[in-house]
Write a structure and sequence with these properties.
single chain, elongated, binds zinc ion
Length: 403
């Protein structure tokens, strides 16, 4: 044994148990100089330092020790002896870190701080140490299907681009911005972790021109796939734009029918409650542009149920013609849908790639819930570096605790 407990003391005022530890003679027999492996003798001791340890029953517990400093007999190097209980952060024991990391998987940092009576700052510092260490060793050599999506850092101002390994279902990289340059940064990170840009054969994303350009410039072997989730989300968005345009028309009856229907149009008919269904049926009698746009969205969604890619291609093309035909008399109101049809036409190859790669894309839709979970956990610390670390911590499938 190289260390022994010399005293345990309970301080009633702070409700804390202190365990005082000291090195034994045995330490000096086994210790070697970190530089040249030479024999070492005790040079001096530090001031009393302390490490937060696991509670003893309900009492906070601190390990205290005046750490010895060793000096090499050969080269004269003086160094602080690293105690075996110390975690990656200077104020916690390994056991306390493992326990706190366990809690941090389940709840926000601020909540863990409250439960453990620690400060946010000390907990975050520990998370950074573990995540940085484990991320540095992460292996991306099997990455071949990549998904990218943007996450807002602060409402509509700053963005992070999040890159995911769609096969392993893990977040592998995050960087500020949402343009083509983010792919350059991604490819660098990929290759720094034993990945290969030429091995990436699928790049799944929203219909975002910047990302598409980034793939062309950096991952030439990758086929761009526009994922179903984003295409349909865009369609829902467009239906809402038609609704708002229609509300601005000078049509009292339409305005009355559309009142408080914003959420109705976002749902699918099978998910409507009976009273919502009745409401929808009444509205649909009124020949509203919004109701037609809603139908357009449902048909688009139905195309994704087609098992055959050739049939799907034909149906997408028919859909685009149909949208234009319906829009011909009310161009201004239907403009958002016509723009969507244009987008579908110009991105058709990437949209049809869904039929080839569809199975790998479940994780893309899940990213939305990943983003909100991460923001919740990092409550009060909404900046790129905190959010990135939290993304890697919870969704990076890293080896944690990193010891
Ligand atoms: Zn030495």
């Amino acid at each position: 044994m190289n260390w022994e407990v010399v005293e345990s003391r309970f301080e009633a005022a702070s409700g804390t148990v202190f365990l005082e530890i000291r090195e034994t003679k045995g330490l000096w027999e086994s210790l070697r100089c970190p530089k040249d492996g030479g024999l070492v003798f005790c040079y001096d001791h530090t001031e009393t330092l302390s490490w937060r340890h696991l509670n003893i029953f309900q009492h906070r517990c601190e390990i205290t020790c005046r750490l010895p400093r060793g000096k090499c007999r050969q080269c004269g190097h003086v160094f602080r002896v690293r105690p075996p209980w110390e975690g990656l952060s200077p104020h916690f024991s390994k056991e306390f870190e493992a326990y706190a990391l366990l809690l941090l998987r389940e709840m926000p940092v601020s909540k863990v701080a409250e439960i453990t009576q620690e400060t946010d700052t000390r907990l975050w510092r520990m998370i950074f140490k573990h995540v940085d260490g484990a991320y540095a060793e992460a292996d991306f050599s099997n990455v071949c299907a990549v998904g990218v999506d943007e996450m807002s850092v602060r409402r509509g101002q700053e963005y992070l681009s999040i890159f995911a390994d769609l096969i392993a279902g893990r977040v592998i990289f995050a960087v500020e911005g949402r343009d083509s340059k983010t792919w350059q940064a991604f490819v660098q990170a990929l290759e720094a972790h034993h990945g290969d840009r030429r091995a990436v054969t699928q790049a799944t994303m929203d219909m975002n021109a910047g990302y598409e350009k980034g793939v062309k410039e950096n991952c030439r072997n990758a086929q761009v796939v526009f994922d179903k989730f984003h295409v349909l989300a865009k369609a829902s968005e467009r239906v809402d734009q038609v609704r708002r345009a229609e509300l601005r028309l000078d049509d009292e009856e339409a305005r009355e029918a559309l009142r408080k229907t914003q959420w109705l149009w976002r749902k699918n008919p099978e998910n409507l409650k009976p009273q919502e269904r009745a409401r929808l049926a009444r509205i649909q009698d009124k020949n509203l542009a919004t109701a037609k746009a809603y139908q357009m969205r449902l048909v688009l969604q139905d195309i994704y149920r087609t098992p055959d890619v050739a049939v799907a291609e034909r149906r997408f093309k028919t859909w685009c013609r149909w949208v234009r035909w319906v829009a011909r008399h009310q161009k201004w109101v239907f403009k958002p849908m016509v723009q969507l049809a244009q987008m579908v036409e110009s991105h058709l190859q990437g949209i049809l790639a869904h039929w080839k790669w569809g199975l790998t894309n479940a994780f893309m839709e899940g990213l939305i819930s990943v983003f909100s979970a991460v923001k919740r956990k990092a409550r009060g610390y909404r900046s790129p570096v905190y959010l990135t670390t939290m993304l890697y911590f919870v969704f990076g499938k890293l080896r944690l605790p990193h010891v």
